[in-house]
Amino acid sequence: MSPSILPSPALDIQGVSHGFGAKPVLHDVTLRLHRGQFLSLVGPSGCGKSTLLRAIVGTHPPRQGAIRTFPMNRGSEGVAVLGPGRDRGIVYQQYSLFPFLTARQNVAIGLMLDETGIPFRFFRWPRWRRLRRQHLRQAEEMLVSVRLGDALDLYPHEMSGGMRQRVALAQAMILRPEIILLDEPFGALDEATRQDLQEMLVDLYQKNRHAQESGGMPSLTLIIVTHELNEAIYVGDRVVGLSQYWNWRADGHSACPGATVVYDKPAPVFDLRTQREFERFAAQRNEIRHVVFEPSSQYPRHQHVTYDQESGAPANA
Amino acid sequence: MIRRSIRPHTALALGVLSVLLLLAAYTALAIRQYHRNPDDTTIPRWNQLQKGFVSAIEVNKRSGDRWLVADALASGQRLFLGLGCGILAAFGLGLLMGCSPCAEAALNPPLSLLAKVPPTAALAVFFVLVGTGNNMYVAMIAFGILPTLAMTVYLAVKEFPDELLFKAYTLGASNTEVVWNIIVRQVLPRFIDAVRLSIGPAMVYLIAAEMVVGDVGFGYRIRLQSKLLNMSVVYPYLALLAGFGFGMDYLLTRARRRLCPWYQAAS
């Protein structure tokens, strides 16, 4: 099954390089995401997955290269990422929730921070109180939709890891960001909870497709960083491998200039009705393991970067 | 077996019993002393203690005021003003240092130095800088508790995970909102705990200074009456100080539970 082709771009990463001190981490990373795409980012530890994610969030700008997002109302030119913004939500493995807020307050705080400022909340508090009630109602609806209707008033430390990550997703999604970034979101969870949450993402993907089939714009683009290849193939419709193991000598470097995109291919799309058969993508899993994770792998960097040809989308500019 | 749990009733009974035992031992000691020397004032019996307490709260013929009222007003004012100034300054400084690397680099060295100077030893400095009277005590208490409190806030802010900061920014928070709505709320319970711990030192500084240069206040009265061996006045004063410390601690703990219900179990 080939993934859907969406002409409208959501995120454009152009020639991003980064390093810490003299140690290069990322080398010339170029990626273009289409609206509605769920991209899985995999790679050996230390390859700079998190660095790339931070660059996209905008908290740690890259040394070289540019990242642009394409908010719906801002034309087709895109907007350069200069810092964190509410169009890009993020969920971390831990520390996504504010420990001093209940589940409901944690979800509502995005609305509060986004829609109001301190002077408003301070000087016009009768109006703020009314608005706050509305925010809490919205947060409640959001939590009910991630099946947490009976955990509204629990503090993060009173919740299980899976519940916390559900709240974190609700917290990120209530602002309807165009891009959601997940940094190993299910890494600390047990297998059953993990599957449950993966299915939640697959469900979101299906909603995207339905929106698109009925002529609308898919609302959510997602990047998930994971070290679990099954998860990457199951959740994403596209798997990108970032790796420091590639044939950089052929590119004229005398030392490894950092990790770059060495693998970029479509992944099969699932829906919740089909059985999860990991055997079905054993071949892809082995290929990724071989190309991305094998320290001795010496493939030219573009050999396995074939997403655009295979999906028929326009090539990267 | 070690650490085998006991019933709550047993625990309570044991606590009450040990306090009663302490009081009984004191009573026995006082009675023995009375039989040795009926005029002794070093280990007063309960009725002597009562007389001493009454003499502290009735109008004194010579000075024309009530000792306890005058002392409590003077010491209380000094203590609360000193604590208030110290707490406010420490919270501001700690936040500033935790949030701004510039302030951190500039303020860390002087604060570490200041923390090593015993405030009572520096009493003369405050005397020279802000003059005699209440200002001197207030400045001493404030500067005495400031370094530790500011450090606590600063370290608590530094410990705040980067991820949560970034999270707040991706939810559309401004810098002020990150400080006011996120960091302050996170740091508050630890700050309240630090304030609880700083009340003890603040009292030590104040009493010591009053003993040296005071003409009214708890420290002054305790020193004077100790010199006269009027332990029947000294003991009630000590009991009042202990009660005050307990009360403040209780109130602050209640405030923390009320303001930060999430904190107890999370730590």
Distance between the termini of chain B: 28 Å
Mass-distribution shape of chain B: globular
Helix-and-strand structural type of chain A: alpha/beta
Percent helix among the residues of chain A? 25-40%
**Chain oligomer state:** heterodimer
List segments of chain A where confidence is low: pLDDT < 50 over at least 5 consecutive residues: 1-6
Largest sheet: number of strands, sense, barrel closure of chain A: 6 strands, mixed
What proportion strand of chain A? 15-25%
Shape-level CATH architecture of chain B = Orthogonal Bundle
Mean pLDDT of chain A: 86
Query: What is the H/E string of chain A?
Result: EEEHEEEHHHHEHEHEEHH
| Strand order across the largest sheet of chain A | 6-7-8-3-9-10
Question: How do the helices and strands line up, and which of them pair or pack?
Answer:
The complex is a heterodimer of chains A (317) and B (267).
Chain A: E1 9-20, E2 23-34, E3 38-42, H1 49-57, E4 64-69, E5 79-80, E6 88-91, H2 103-115, H3 118-123, H4 125-145, H5 161-173, E7 179-183, H6 191-213, E8 221-225, H7 229-235, E9 238-243, E10 260-266, H8 282-293, H9 307-311
Parallel strand pairs in A: 3-8, 3-9, 6-7, 7-8
Antiparallel strand pairs in A: 1-2, 1-4, 4-5, 9-10
Chain B: H1 8-36, H2 46-57, H3 67-99, H4 101-116, H5 123-130, H6 134-159, H7 162-170, H8 175-213, H9 218-227, H10 231-259, H11 263-266
Describe the 3D structure:
The complex is a heterodimer of chains A (317) and B (267). Chain A contains 9 helices and 10 strands. Chain A starts with 8 loop residues before the first strand and ends in a 6-residue tail after the last helix. In chain A, helix 2 (103-115) runs parallel beside helix 5. Mean pLDDT of chain A is 86; it is low at 1-6. In chain A, strands 6-7-8-3-9-10 form a 6-stranded mixed β-sheet, sandwiched between helices. Chain A has 2 domains: 9-87 and 179-311, 3-Layer(aba) Sandwich (Rossmann fold); 98-176, no CATH class. In chain A, 34% of the residues lie in helices and 20% in strands. Chain A has 317 residues and is an alpha/beta fold. In chain B, helix 5 packs across helix 6. Chain B has a single domain, classed as MetI-like fold (Orthogonal Bundle), CATH 1.10.3720. The mean pLDDT of chain B is 91. In chain B, 81% of the residues lie in helices and 0% in strands. Chain B has 11 helices and no strands. With 267 residues, chain B is mostly helical. The interface between A and B is medium-sized, with 33 and 26 residues.
